[in-house]
Specification:
Oligomer: single chain
Shape: globular
Largest sheet: 2 strands, antiparallel
Distance between the termini: 39 Å
Helix content: 55-70%
Number of strands: 2
Number of domains: 1
Radius of gyration: 23 Å
């Protein structure tokens, strides 16, 4: 067979990962389910997903930790309730976890994420927005049902700690998308927020542990559900490590 004919019958080379992630091509977002038009629908899916069987192990661990912490409530309250041992920590934690700080921070992150070309940041900011809304909703619902008096007697919204639930929820999202380099400091800050709430004498130890467990459970649900591809699509970015997922991809396959 002539060499010219053989050249014509050679199959076209398949695109490689490098060609799919080339930064020379126009950037196209690969959000999958994490799109603005799907935000409310995803919020509903994630709310229902909190009660899925996938969360049973996390729920049981969190419940066990909360029950164990309940045994130390009196001792921790006596330690923190007698005097302000770290006033700066309690006051800082109180401001850090208030909705007047959390809500604007969430909106700003979401807006920056929608405008960003960093796919990892787009996904993380989207999940933070959904996690914050759901965490606040579940925390308020449980507080109303539990009707537990705070250690300082100020009101009956002690259980669980909303500051802790939101702090640990954010830390879980950071850890998922950016690994231990971001996750460990984020969890450390979340832990300090919980300690600060006890130092302020507005929460028992079990309130903080329950809030942490709730935040982790909800954020894990949001991440898992939002990672699911839309019906009829295959998301090519899901199996890539964060370092590659942050690079712009220009190709996605769609199966009909």
């Amino acid at each position: 067979m002539p060499r010219e004919a053989m050249a014509k019958t050679d199959p076209a080379p398949q695109p490689t990962l490098a060609s799919q992630t080339s930064t020379s091509e126009p950037w196209v977002a690969q959000d999958g389910r994490r799109s603005g038009s799907e935000f409310v629908e995803n919020l509903g899916r994630n709310c229902v997903g909190v009660f899925s069987q996938d969360n049973l192990q996390t729920f049981l661990i969190g419940t066990g930790a909360t029950v164990s912490a309940r045994l130390l409530d009196d001792k921790s309250q006596r330690f923190f309730g007698g005097q302000r041992r770290a006033k700066w920590l309690g006051d800082t934690a109180e401001q850090f976890g208030r909705m007047r700080f959390v809500a604007p921070a969430t909106l700003i992150l979401y807006g920056l994420g929608r405008a960003s070309h960093d796919q990892t940041f787009r996904d993380a900011s989207y999940d933070i927005a959904q996690t914050t809304i759901l965490t606040a909703a579940f925390t308020v619902a449980i507080k109303t049902s539990a009707h537990r008096l705070r250690p300082d007697g100020s009101n009956y919204r002690s259980f669980p700690s909303g500051h802790s639930s939101n702090s640990f929820a954010w830390a879980t999202v950071f850890n998922h998308f950016y690994g231990p380099a971001a996750g460990i400091p984020a969890y450390g800050i979340a832990g300090l927020v919980g300690i600060g709430r006890m130092e302020k004498n507005v929460h028992y130890l079990s309130d903080v542990v329950a809030g942490a467990a709730l935040g982790i459970l909800i954020s894990r649900t949001v991440i898992r559900k939002n990672d699911e591809p839309l019906p009829g699509t295959t998301v090519t970015t899901g199996g890539l490590p964060p370092a590659l997922r942050s690079r712009p991809l220009i190709q996605a396959s769609i199966d009909f």
